[in-house]
Structures
1.
Amino acid sequence: MDLVHDVLDKILLDKREKPVGRIDGIVLELRDGRPPRVACVELGGTVLARRLHPRLARWAAAIRRLWGSGHVSTTRIPWSALRRMGLMWQAELDGRDTPAADWEVWLRDRVIARVPGRGK
Amino acid sequence: MSKILEIALGMVTGIGGFLEAGSIATAAQAGADFGYQLIWAIGVGTLALIILLEMSGRLALVSHRTLADAIRERFGVGYFIVPLVVGLVLSLLVLSAEIGGVAFALQMATGVSFQWWALPVALVGWLLLWKGTFGAIEKGTAFLGLVAVSIAVAALRLHPDWTRVGAGLLPTQPTHERARYWFLAVSIVGASISPYLYYFYSAGAIEDHWDLSYLGINRIVAALGNLFGGVLAAAVLVVAVLVFGPRGIHVERFEQLGLLLTPALGRWGFVFLVATLGINCFSATVEIALSAAYLLAQSFGWEWAEDARPSEHARFSLAYTVAIFLAAVPIALGVDALKLTNVSMALTAASLPVTVLPLLVLMNDRYYLHKHRNGWAGNLALGAVAVLSVVLLVVAIPLQFLGGG
Amino acid sequence: MEHEPQMRPGSTQRGRTRSEARVARGVGAALALFAPAMLTGCGSGGARQTLQKVASWTATARMAADELEARHTTPRYTGKTLAVASDQVASQARSFAPNDLPGALRAPAVGAVTAARQAIRDMSRAAERRDGAALARAAARADSADRALDALLAALPER
């Protein structure tokens, strides 16, 4: 399997089949005398920024420090927990429990909750 | 039977959706300044749009990936950042122009200056997105947008010389103001082929749950709806030729458009023009705001669905909220809306390779389209559009300096 | 409602092209660079263009008055349109430089532009006051100014 083409940038679904986000990075484990293998995949703005440009990565990290309360911002999923679903991947977890949902939850609770008429 | 209704709806959406601030303004300017000579540009833009829509629709219903999804997944974020940023910036510019169109329609109707209308228009558009469903928005704006047919009626009543109209379908060299002629040609094509249209169309195929049985419908809707839309844009041009041409009026401000239909349709002409401008620009406003949100959500893998409650898709909902209010600001500040429209159309034309070239690759990708990949005819057509897009990229910006304004 | 994943048979994808990404980034940067300039900067000047614009706005003003009289449009719309016409012609008149015109046409050009500016200004004021008679009188003056401008434009040598 071609990691870059089959894993990177693909949508990750959770056990409810809702999107958690896109796989922004892959972490390889280097082993002596054996080919490297995938340890886990990563989702997150800082991971994405790192792929684009190192300066962007620094900005992304700075923004994270400003907004975040010091907890982990990157969602890491071990390779063994992933299974393929066609053009997407699925992990046995609830997306709402991951750091990937941080912004969504924050915006929902702090901003949208304040707007009148949230229902349809 | 319901498939026929779907086709009808799709066509109506295309008709109403084609005309918006850009296509109206550029067609009116072209007719006033160059007679029937630029009808071919409308034809080229319409044909290219039909090809792009059919293909992005086919991509979505076969692979269940929207165009934005597919570009990121196939080309990676390193490339994708370009269509993303370009798409967002241009969406905001065009969105401003559309809000300007609505604001001017309201100014014509009430006499209250267009600047005061910018934020109220954004607010109403936002409310519709916040509270409405995709289907309701699609159908509502489509049917109301049919008021644009009045322009075709006006064109017929003015008895144009049809041979001269037909001659305009072939490109000819202008006799004067060459730079402006080509600038308008580029802007007309940019007005016809805005990327937001095919981002929106492919997202719409997913929102409407199209599957493989919709392949034929996709073709018909893309072709017929936009064909009629192109005819309406040509009608604007024809009316401008017959109304503004003989009087020596060159269109420089939206206000002048109020006079477009009155010679042919009297009082109703004024009413229909104001309604057409207002309604069609308003539906474009809502669509572009949604399209920008789709683009962001699909880029980063957020959940997105217009039908869902805003609280369920916070980032997506906030995206269109920010887009629509941000875009209202230039109009509220009194930026020249016609100039903004011209510039945003030209920039749109210049930005096309960024999405068209990836589409050319995707439409041949077995992984996404299986046996529904492009055949030689499709590739020829899309290839021609790709060449056109590169030409536009090269000429659009110099032409803006030479012939714009 | 959410968008269901589709099962697709796996297959390898082709490679990404980094040079493609670089070219695209260049394009994006160029667009970003030029956009602000395009929004501000614009076309050329010249006496001929000024005359054309003044003639165009004069014709617009006349048409607006005619359509109001025929009760096709509203007084509010007409008032706004005439105000815009008046501003546009005033700004054209201010920057009018007849030096690139043939000598014999310079004085008549200035005269025609001035006449147009005054006529449209009066039309605009009459519309504000809803004074139909004054509007008609000013419109007649705009009419002759427009004719004078057309004659001048016709007399100019071909470009």
2.
Amino acid sequence: MGADPIENVVMMEDHDGAYYAWKQAELKDRIAVHIDAHIDFGWIPERDPEALLNLGTLRELENQSSTDSLWNFTGRPTDKLVDLGNYLNPALREGILRSVYWVAPDRFFATRERQAQLEAMLHEMRKANPRALQQIAWSNGVLQAELYGKPLTICPLANIPRFQEDVLLDIDTDFLIINSISPAYPYPDHPNPTPWTWPDELVERLRERGLRSDFVTIAYSVEGGYTPLDYKYLADDLASLLRDPDLPAAQLWLMSLKRDAACAHDTGKFAEAREAYERTLALDPDDASVHYRLAQLAYEQGHVDEARRYYEQTVTLDPTYRTEYNNVGPVYLSLGQFTQSAAEYRKIIALDPQHASAHRGLGDLSVQQGRWDEALAHYRRASELRPGDGLAHLGQGRVHAQVRNWASAETELKQAVRSKECEGAAQYWLGYVYAKQRRWDDALASYKAARRCRFRTRGLYLALGNLYLRKKNMYQAARHYGKAARLLAAAVRHRVRRLPESVRRMLMTIRCGDATR
Amino acid sequence: MQLDKRLARSERFAWRVIEDEAVLVDRDEEEVLRLNLIAAEIWQALDGSRSIAEIIDQIHQSFDVDRKTAENDVLRFVKELFKRELVEEAPAAAREPQAR
């Protein structure tokens, strides 16, 4: 690694592309070194419950139904259930891999508490499929287990063993950025998430461990908010370093300049950052990532026209930069940080007034703040820019529903249902609109349709509970209220888990104090 | 529950009888249900063509229970099925002409 060139370096946006690349290359019985901030070996609920009906005896039925809870009630074929969170799983079971090393960021192992978090993650997984995940134990600073009877090892870079063969190196760019299971996890911390390690450092550390690979897969992981678009280029740098360990000095110099610029930018040293970016552009005028960072920098300094020019240049050079995730508005929104989210969306609209997703994001924000007229205007703009955008129709439907404009709400929501993009949510809101008009049977049908689409929220179960109560079906009412309560309890547990470490320690102290009194 | 009512199994289930028990797969609720011997017999009879009274007669004759007990058991079970939306009123086409 870092000594010999590697010919097979496959790049992808979503990390499950690695599984398909391995399959296509007909790889078998290999060791994977999975360098990532996320596990990617989650379970696939693949057991068809209707297969139970083919069993001959009740004893067989009991045996089959007690082994695990990974039933696929969706009716979708198993191969359609493979995604970026579970692709290592089929790769192990199909014999592509015989062993997986998950190399997690260093700070995941920094304290006993962090190590306990990792172990707890495995024990939590084991509950759903106890036969497939066994023998979870720490040994010399690495966490080991057996996954489908094959060895799974979780370790930091420093504990990668010295393999006697070429491995499949499988890297997610977010590994370079996300260094802890912080409250923002699975996303990086914001603002200004700066890499904790850089491609050249990673390659050097792998080289020190004597790692050799003949097949490398690298995921950008920008869509979804894991790798900030600012640092998407690190995946390309990694690929360059692995493909050609003897990169020309000029290219290495360019990487180093970009790193200096990014560090200066992220720490607010704008003049220094600008100078470094401009020097890199002088060396490589077609580097979209630098145009993109300069667009951000110019905007932060209040030079909107200049920022727009850099942005236009960016998306001309690389159209993938015009993505929903070219700003962290969606991430801030999901974390409930509305002010920061709005600022992000406004920035991207200033740079790219045609950015439909950003208009929709502002619509979502306005809904959160109860500013209905504003929300409607943003959603309408998003619809104009991207006709047929189901989420924009859903947004408009929700706003109309909030202001009791039932006919318009129904029209928009039916369009959202037809788009299939957000059918479950649209059916839920249709149910709400019908219920408000006392169209009970229509409401029930829509809520049930939402449930069939796997839109299973607390709100949906409460609404179903209320409808059944109205129909005096106490059994179904209680059943749905129960489901709502269970979801609420799970959400509370999740929030407690996300409390900062210091607060959790305080809670622990208080509990200990109570116990001694 | 009126005894002349005809109920039909909901079409949302896949089901089969295994060793005298009915096994039902409910994809919406993500559940697999099992019905015991008598329940399975009632379940199979709920095809929309028979009235509840006819099903009570069938249970009374098949399981060597007095008619009152059969009626209580069938009604209790059918109400349970109805609450769980496992059965619904049979469409008119499935019904025999009503006598006046």
3.
Amino acid sequence: MKNIALNNKMKSLIAMFLVLVTMAGVVYGLNWLLSDQFQQNAIEAERKIPRMVLPEGNYFDLYDGNLVENVSACYVASNGAGIAVVVDQKISHGGIQIMVGVNNEGQITTVAILSQDYTKGNDAGINNSEYLSVYIGRTLLTASNISADYEINPVPGAEEASDAVYQAVKIAFLQQAVIENAIEAENKKAAEDAEDGGN
Amino acid sequence: MVGKKILQENPVLVSIAGLCPAVAITTTVANSLVLGVGTIFVMLLTILLSYLLRNIIADQFATGFHIIAAAGFTTVVQLVVDAYFPEVSASLGIFIALIAVNCIVIENVGFARKKILSDALKNGLGIGLGFMLVLLIMGAIREIGGAGTFLGYKILESGPAPNSLLMLVPGGLLVLSALCAFTRWFHLRFGKARKGALHS
């Protein structure tokens, strides 16, 4: 009697173990089958990230031309709405990654802090919308640094980080000029080629 | 039998079960649809597996076995939703994984061992459809009233402005309470009338 009960228990445990192994196999197989789709989703998600600084852009392509110094990535909106530039800046407390949106009229749309290596201290104070919004709509920054600019004030106690953001915006303008020049050169070459072909 | 389970024995509105997902995720119709279909899928397959192995798995291991089976099928649902509906997946968050331990699933899968397979499947389908129906009604009310959209498409161009309270948990509780109250009133009003008609 006792043996029958024990056998039933063993039978149950073995059946549960086999079900568990089969389930794990099914999940593993499904994961393998869907891996391409997951990869595609990751690419799609990455292409949507720049929308946080350039909402007019639908999808973004990674710019594979020349990048200005400190620019780690540049995305170009496929509908021609503008560009989103990711700038890596270094200050004495650590690194800051800033994303700047520039529309097709050369105006800053949004400045966003993607990451800061430090979490404490006054320099963290730059991540406030009041300070970052002063750049919106600007088409040019002429001063060499933020303390020489009479229109933009640094965040009190976060002067160095504020200047890093200021420089990032200037770098975004430079990157936009680089892209515009590249497009202009490409168009000129295409026009010359067409002319040569005609002759 | 299926119709009775959907309306008269609705798991959410009558048995007051599965309230967490009903309140938490019904901010859009898409969320409700995906969670409803996922729950039905997990419940039916778990019932089927539980029925097929009913003579092998001893009673004392039944609950553990149901959770293992439901967890496996839930993982399949999670992977498919992650792959083809990534935005809905992000919105549903942990609630897809929690299908495995949803009291509606666990309670009804247990009946599969004691019933004929077709009855167990009909019971599961009725309960699952009843659960999905409530999620869809709540999702529609909250999405239209709270965001002015239906399945992501803007439908309220003019008229009253959307009330964002409906998108919050208190809004979900208010909608659920209103539906529960309506169901109770409906049962008292028309249940009595039908009984009266049968007696006369």
